[in-house]
Amino acid sequence: MASTTRGRWFSGYLRTTFHYNAGWSALDASAPVGEFRLLRSRTSRADPGVSIHTVRAPTGVAADLVRRALRDTFETACRCEHDCCGHPFTTVDRLERGRRRHWFVTVRQRLNV
After folding, report:
1. How far apart are CA 83 and CA 87, in angstroms?
2. Backbone phi, then psi, for 75, in 5-degree steps?
3. CB of 28 within 8 A of CB of 16?
């Protein structure tokens, strides 16, 4: 574990339209899911491009909606119109449900090269 972050809140949203790629996804329409809490965030020592986040989901939200909202939150892309720009983008490698509304999100960061 190289770095750790605790106790931050973020709003979860579901994209309801998909007109734009991931870099411009904020321009798509979205619907609120609720307030999520980032309980813990750590970076893998073996692979610094991998981070594991422990998140607590809001109450009363179905598991499939939580999965979609977490993917929409943690997956990012650059806004360049060409490949090999060198900017980072992230993908969700694993998304596991734990106990008591806890979710484990494994995110991999890569460079667009």
Report:
1. 10
2. -90, 130
3. yes
Query: By three-state DSSP, how is residue 41 classified?
Result: strand
Judged by phi (left if over 0) then psi (alpha if -120 to 50, else beta), residue 26 lies in: alpha
Q: What is the pLDDT of residues 14-33, one digit of tens each?
A: 989 989 877 788 888 999 99
Residues 112, 89 contacting (CB under 8 angstroms)? yes
Give residues with Cβ within 8 angstroms of 25, minimum separation 6: 15, 72
- pLDDT digits over 43-60, tens only? 988 888 999 999 999 999
DSSP of 22-47: GGGGGGS-EEEEEEEEEEEEEE-SS-
Longest dimension (CA), the chain: 43
CA-wise closest residue to 16 among 63, 68, 66: 68
Both tokens of residue 92?
A: 């969700």
State whether residue 47 is helix, strand or coil.
coil
